[in-house]
Queue: 4 jobs
Job 1
Amino acid sequence: MKGVAIAMETVIYLILAVTVLTVLLYFFTSQANPAQNRLELYRQQQDGCLAFAKQQKSCQEIDFPQKAQLEKTCRQLSEFQSCTTGGLNCLRECCRTFCGIA
């Protein structure tokens, strides 16, 4: 009978260990996701602003392929006052370091 008791204890410990590891894994992956999303938005901002500044150094109104995506990214970052309405002011504020406005 003792051999069976040890096996049942082992199974219970394994179930508990797997449960704890699953909860920990879920906790750490769910906490890292917002930071990863934020870093991805910063990367998109950098790429878009670089394309914007390459079109014209003073960052005047000009059409470029990434314009809509850049406006969307700047709005999602929620760091720029003028991006609530969008437009050229949003792009200038979002890309001020690339446009030499700093």
Note: Residues 2-99 form one domain.
Job 2
Amino acid sequence: MKNTRGLLALGIALVGITVPAMPYAHTNFGFAYDSYLWQPPAAQIKNEVKKVTSEGVEKVCVETKDRYKVNYGISMEYGFDMQGLDKDGETVEPLRIFGPSESAIAMFNEEPAGSALNFITGLTTPLSLTDDDIRGRVTLDGKRKETDVNIWLSAALPWESVPGRWELGIYIPLKMVETTDVAWVNVPNPNNLPIGQLHTQLTDVLDHVTDVYGDGLRVDDLKDHGLGDITCMLSWNEEYDQLEDGLSTVGLWARAGVAIPTSNRRDVDHALSIPLGNDGAWAIPLAGGMNLYFENKLRLGAAADINVLFNETGQRRLRTSACQTELLLSQEVEATRKAGTQLRITAIAEGHKIAEVFTAGVSYQGSWRSEDEFSVDHSRWDDSLTGPINTSERYQESVYHQLIFRAGFDWSDEYGCKHGPRINAFFKYPLKRGKRTAIYKTFGAEISFNF
């Protein structure tokens, strides 16, 4: 009997949408179907069996059967030490990814930047001054941490007449993102520009102003938690024995699925709220890759993932003026989002089944998301509104890179342990080579079983 090592299935990352640190920012967090990243090949056993033909001739046949029919498991991942990379790739505080400061003046301004304005008539003394990037400008301090729990179940399909192994899987993500210690800080005024009542009547009471005059807008501590987008995936793989010295098996694989918008949409009345899924959009994840298994226990793999989101329409706080910043937005707009393309590249090198049960390795991941585009209801909004909306930093291209270090034990097919378990631990280290992205250091573990 010869055991062949086939596919190591990789999941699709819904990068930038599923667990953004701010709306639509990348993170280096994993997703429900990333649990497959560290699972063993979709195990099939090929047995050489001697059979006698009707003519009485003995011949050797190869019979293939699945090593297991069902796989299920759970993983948990925790992110800490969050930072951000801005549009130029510079390291910034986690709540300043899309801009170094926010303009409290421009929040209520419908005129070009730099014009004088007389706004918020409810103030004791109406204010009139120029947005000069200092007066009326505030920065946002705060911390953010994140925890993901992913549950999955996959089963082999009885398609024996179709080449390869087919599996159908369901992946259920549970997510919690906590934003704490949120505080506004006035931008320094090194040249002692005249401030007047600007601090006392606006920036020092900004939470009150945004609530009363910003139609209920909040910018404070927040805990987003709940169910993510449940995803169903159909996967195929085939494995080929090799005659070359050193190379034992080549595995090819492909995956396709649908992400169902089961998560809550982003809270439009909280500037720091994030969607725990695709913010109401359906998605089609697609992927393919190849793995090379060598006789010296080395495994090399490469994969490409792409995620396609459907258009969706909903209420959002969007820029209605080019001078407005990213968080302090007073108006809600119904708009249709055409999401950008999401692409991820993964490369893996690992020592596979060392001492029969131990595996350790490292992988690189790079992810890119193109810009989102918005269109508005022309019967209610002027066409010129799409300009300010589509120049918003949070909807522009984003990039992140990371390394993943992993070690684990697999007793699923050794020593008669038919049902496992398989235990893995991993650590993700972000590389500061991206832009418009949140970056965490994350660690996690998973356990899974076969039967």
Note: The first strand starts at residue 2 and ends at 3.
Job 3
Amino acid sequence: MRKLCSNLLEPRAIILGFTIFYFIWALLTWIRDPLWNYHRELFVAIVLLISALALVINRRWSNVLAAVMSGQLPFAFFAEFWMLSEYAELRPFSSRHIKAWLWGLSNVGLKPLLWLGLSIIMMSLAVASILLSHAARRHSSVQP
């Protein structure tokens, strides 16, 4: 029982539980709406679920997969930030550009910010695991 509780309190298990819950919620939302509606929530839920499963597997290849899959969402946020200056005809990184970006974030709601936060946590955990496994492998190959 103690081992089960300690396994459930690991960050990888908590992330997996959260993404399973979010996937079920997105799937139920998609089932209720007409089929021709595009559901960004379901797409993001699938990406996050694949990343979380790869984190739980905790192999080198699965950590790379998790880093790449979860790294797409922060990249999308950065691309939107960068393209806002083009669309709004503002100078990049000017005060008006940043103010327009923050105004857009305040109107978008909480879900995309939760996606961003979870994906950054998953990406950093995967990258840390990759670096630690690489350092351990290099250290074990140096010893006679």
Note: The radius of gyration is 19 Å.
Job 4
Amino acid sequence: MESTCHAGQVPDRHRDPTVSVRPTADDKQAAAEALGEWGWTIGDALHAALLWLLDDPRRLAELERFRPPAKTKGRPPNNARPRGQ
């Protein structure tokens, strides 16, 4: 599968919505330092990793041990006391 960028097309913010992740500050700092030594940004590495996985989806099995836990859906419970109490 060829990515939009490799197909000579510029990604469109409406057709290709942004995907976001929120790693911990420590993970981001460590990744930025390690990748920076190779002249890579975190965004470059994430994009390249997606293309690498698309090239052979069986590679996902190699990542399973690094997979973060599933996030809960919906809003967190409101355990705060009602106002005025």
Note: Residues 42-55 form the longest helix (14 residues).
